[in-house]
## 1
Amino acid sequence: MTNPAERSRSALQGPMRVANRMHLRATGLDDEAIDKPFVGVVHTHSEVSPCVMSLAPQAAAAKVGVEVAGATARECSTVSISDVWTMVHETGPQFSLISREVIADSVELVLQGQRYDAAVTLGACDKTVPGMLMALTRVNIPGVYVHGGAALRGWSKGEPINFYRVFGDMDRTLAGDMSEDELEALNRDAMVSVGTCPGLNTASTGAACAEVMGFSALGTASIPAVYSQRIALARKAGEHAVRLLMEGGPRPRDWVTRESLENAVTVVAAMRGSSNMLLHLPAIANEAGVRFELKDMIDILRRTPRITSLIPNGPHALIDLDRIGGLPVVFKALLDGGLLHPHTPTNDGRTLAEALADAPAPDGKIVRSCDDPFQPDSGLVVLQGNLAPDGCIVKTADIPVLVFEGPARVFDGDAAARKGIAAGEFSAGEVIIVRGEGPRGSPGMREMLDAPIPIRQRGMGRDVALVTDGRWPAGTGGLCVAHVSPEAHAGGPLALVENGDIVRIDAQQGTIDFKVLDEEIARRRANLPPPQFWSGGGVGEKYARVVGPTHLGAPTHSYR
Ligand code: FES
């Protein structure tokens, strides 16, 4: 039988490895500790955002679990940056998505470079979650993902604050309907502790995916960041990582199969979670050698009803879901509705159906059954057509117009769009296209916070449609199409659109086309200048030259 700790032993046994043992002794380990298996405890704790500031005590608890279970824990941290901050960059790289790759690569480097036998990874913001899942899958040693948990939400005048109201208040202030002092006062208490944004943002949606796929123990993602329970669960995760190593059990790639990916998309749809996870799931799949792309999600997003009422789709926060049993309540409702594959492995090796056998029933307020959903569809639609042959995403929830046809108004990049839209260079009935903001073009797939604001301020959200190969942070009230693939910078058809071309978006049929004759499209393509890569140096320049297409998750190493 092979030694489960053979990775670390290969770095520590025999006279040739004396320098490594010397190094470990210099870190304070004795011979007994050096003779045990090694478990890397890797997290993204830092002071850059509240999201990740809950991770240090959880990582410390995970180390205790590792040691109690008979292995030696080694702690390491890596970077994280907050999407909220990176949205303000008008030109140049959008660092957030790039950080996902840096996180995955850096965790790979330490787990492989140090020959650790197993891992506990901890994350807690939009890109740290997929980055950690990608790293675990890539390295494929026994491992567990621990999510950091959401922040506590604030209260004002006896009412819980909906965290997302900050964006509405921002609009009102910009429109002159609220003073900046009022804005500050109203939002001072919106987020009152460390932890991730307390609604269904990308981090929480990603944590739900991690749980249903098997990376995390069931019932853990919804526990608030500052609850003491988190210390206990992190300790258990440390123990479990050692158990997976010593006794065998699912490895990360066992958790990343077509069926588990379909389950994850179903959960995103049923919660109407962040559409960013529809970008990250193909990237996680890529690490397991599974080709899973945007078009594979079309039917799932169509058939899955929304069965939760979590912020921003309802009044409840994750802490409310936690009080009724956490995500297993959602998973069980989906399982009972026949919408989840029942035999995928969970974190402890049982099948999903076995592990959810005793999960609580929906309460009817926060979670409903599939027979009695809050809405009959997910409100997330993948479109395809001659403008997006490999797909794109539109959110249809609460959008009154599902079919939109109008002349294109083209802006090359976010900076031009901000300027043009603020100057009123658009009209009702137009399809506003902001291109060159995909993974290669930005580089980093910009999330364009500011460009739509003047549209909303003029009350024209429903009168125009927005289309981009980048991302929109929040709706204008009308159709907002994002993630167009292939992106303009890679020669996607979006690069060929001219002002005045008629664009038709049909979210009912799932299509997006521009009405230009094939011969004319070919003529424009022949005249398309070669793309200019971002040449400002640094990580953005490196990233732009290697990043893959959006529909495959924008990976930076060979996608299959
Ligand atoms: Fe980090 Fe929202 S910005 S979770």
Note: The chain has a mean pLDDT of 94.
## 2
Amino acid sequence: PAFTFDPHPSPVDADERARLLVDPGFGRVFTDHMVTIRYSSAAGWHDARIGPREPLTIDTATAVLHYAQEIFEGLKAYRLADGGTALFRPERNAARFRDSARRMAMAELPEALFLESIRRLVQTEREWIPTLDGGALYLRPFMIASEVFLGVKPSAEYIFAVIASSVGAYFKGGAPAVSLWISENYTRAAPGGTGAAKCGGNYASSLVAQAEAIRQGCDQVLFLDAAERRWIEELGGMNIFFVFDDGMLATPPLTGTILPGITRDSILRIARDLGFEVREEPYAIDQCRADAESGRLREAFACGTAAVVTPIGRMLSRQGDFTIGGGGPGQTTQRLRQTLVGIQTGVAEDRHGWLERL
Ligand code: PLP
Ligand code: COI
């Protein structure tokens, strides 16, 4: 479908925007416009529009409100060192969005339409990219089941939308290293479940575990596998990597219960380019504790679009806590972070053609 553009009648003025962009935090400052595209099984994808960001008015019997048929994505538009604007591997988000839709029995948005939505919104909202270090325009594409019907079945209608938020660091104070609470009471995803899909329900079910982590004085929850409660999976909203004393790196394999992170995939590639050996293999929590105590495990870090690369300094559970390496940012972690951010901001060589200039 062709896009229509309805400019916002009263966009935020330049002074107010500048004030909001000084310290935007994460996910609280929104731009003026949004994309919406509608779907019905009879008409297909139609009504593609960029218009003012405004409330969606939906019936109280709309399917998403009852059975949570909803998916989303998260990616950033970066301000380049030369003043340009770029996306990082957006085609991977488009593909993952389709995979998520399939898992949730939703209509699949063609990848070209996903990408066109993102590009158009970024072009419209370029001025909202913060200039602060680590700042970006966080894009949130999502889709909801919009049929008005209470039977339990895949919706025949959907609304796809993209909103944008000016963001700084995800962790307050740009935390030098975060701490993890090892969740024993709760798991995130079981084999055959929705762990590899980016659906809202995964996050709803993680909140009680995350709240427990906060109560224990930790920044994030670490989930173990649902079957044995033994193998490290991922955090509530990030993948995890380990760095060993022999220079080897490891990250849990994609077995269907963790989100296939685009940052994870990029780190795997970058680490190999830098000459590291990287293994995608299961890592047991008891082994992790033993390796941290013996010094074999030197560093650990979380990675994701929002978190970028964040060092993990400490892990806590009912069995007690342990420190990883010196408890602060490790050398390898910093080197990987610097290379990734360098590519994303156009100052490091983009060997794999990951950057899309707009
Ligand atoms: N794991 C979970 C559960 C996430 O929500 C995210 C964030 O999107 C990630 C991992 C990292 O994925 P990506 O690197 O594609 O942002
Ligand atoms: C992202 O990194 O894009 C996510 O979805 C994670 C969430 C914690 C904001």
Note: The longest helix spans residues 200-215.
